[in-house]
Amino acid sequence: MPMEGKSDMERIGLFSEMSYVTIGDRYVSHFMRPFNEAASKNKQMLPGGSKVMSDLQAGYFEPQFVRIFEGEAYSNPVQLRRRRRLAESKKNLGNAFIPSNGDKLPCGLGSYYGTIGGPYPYFSAQVKDKGRYISPGKNFYTNPGKKGSGYGYANLTIGPEYPHEADGYDLERINAKKARELHKRLLKGGAFKLNLYPQEYFDANPYFTDRPLPPAKKSPPKKPAPRAFRPSSPAKKVSLYSVGAYVIKKSMAVTSHKEQRIFHPPPGPKSRPIKSIIALNVTR
Q: Which family does it belong to (predicted)?
């Protein structure tokens, strides 16, 4: 007959197995669980989950694992390449061979190395056929023989003589008049004036009148108000001699170095009573 309730050993907890993934809460089916538990707890939604490592055969792009030879040993290609390079370096008896500089290619004046089209036959150094040389003849004489002093003899200079022409008396005024007439002749017409609205202003001025204004009225000159009569002060009486009549006034000491007052800033607005966040978490 099964016992009702818990035994004493289970109640004390000496021989009871501890729980692993639960704290005693009830099991909730995965159909009843929220879709995104992190979003329901005021957390940011993650775009993707963590990557899961997999060593399936689909990752090798082959239906089954292919080996070159059955029972072959493991070989590291990087290590073999290093051993081969080390063995080749031991064969060197001295320093690395450095070849000497080769012949310098022609470059400079008279060289066509590096050009696109190469040499042109027109600019070759071969002797070309020349035509018969025709002498240009003697040069003209710049200092011919004199035929007199030059005064009164015609056609003794290289060029023709300059004709003598006297300037007009009003030559500048005549030239300006001709230029002004030419300018007026080139004008098409006078200044453009629009007569569709021959008024001085865009809007009619209600205060405008053609009647002449009357002469301005001159106000009569104002007479200055007479000054009030003030009698002069009476003459002072001659005072008799009296002992101790002259009183000496004591001058106040001028204090230039005064104590500066301490600056007290004005009090700001009073803060409102605010509860601490830690206290709210504790009370919650």
A: Belongs to the CFAP96 family.
